[in-house]
Structure prediction request, 241 residues.
Amino acid sequence: MRQAGRIAAAARALAGKMAVPGATTQEIDKAVESFIRSKHAYPTFLGYNDYPASVCVSVNEVVIHGIPGKYVIKDGDIVSIDVGATYDGFVGDCAATFIAGNAKNDEARKLLSVTRQSFYEGIKYARPGYRISDIGHAVQEYVEVNGFSVIRDYVGHGVGAVMHEEPEIPNYGIAGHGARIVRGMTLAVEPMVAAGDWPVRTLRDGWTVVTKDGSMAAHYENSILVTDGEPEILTVPEPEV
Ligand code: MF3
Ligand code: CO
Prediction:
């Protein structure tokens, strides 16, 4: 899980560096696929439920599952990258949102930082003694205090030999419910946050999920290991610059 996580995180960082004005989303996909294969891993998403690419690239009002293609990234776009790597039978799954070029406004920057921090607020509860819903409760609290909303239709998940395992990990809800958290669990915690309201719809390609109100959305995900103390992040993020 550590090795898979390291490859997935490096793929995320590579994709983030490539998310600049003038690049196409397809170029990012191809580079990430080559990178993952060069590490003797497999891009987990490719062919998963017939998904046609190795990365999800979700721009602006696209929340998740954007399919890479001919779209040319523009200055100020917010670009969510979601990527998985399967190595030696185990999966690392992670995501992050990047700003291409110069941010259009402070709200875009705030949306990214609130979304990332909401993950860290959530995983404060990813330790023995808490239950699964404590994570989402903390995510929701932090996101809403900051004036944004949490996507309800998609959730985090257990991760291991396959990408989606039990339990489901919603990013909202009341505390104190769901499975008890125990040492050794590996979880993918992934807040998806809209600057406006949370309802979403899927485009006719069957994948692309957008906010109904057209507001920008961000995503931040790491695969983590529950320990006796603080969780260990398996998809170790690159330091912020
Ligand atoms: N990374 C997503 C998740 O966290 C899954 C991507 S869907 C796929 O659950 F089909 F593209 F793989
Ligand atoms: Co995931």
Observations:
- The chain has a mean pLDDT of 97.
- The chain is about 25% helix and 25% strand.
- Helices lie at 2-18, 25-38, 106-123, 132-145.
- The pocket of cobalt (II) ion (ligand 2) is lined by residues 93, 157, 188, 190, 221 (CB under 6 Å).
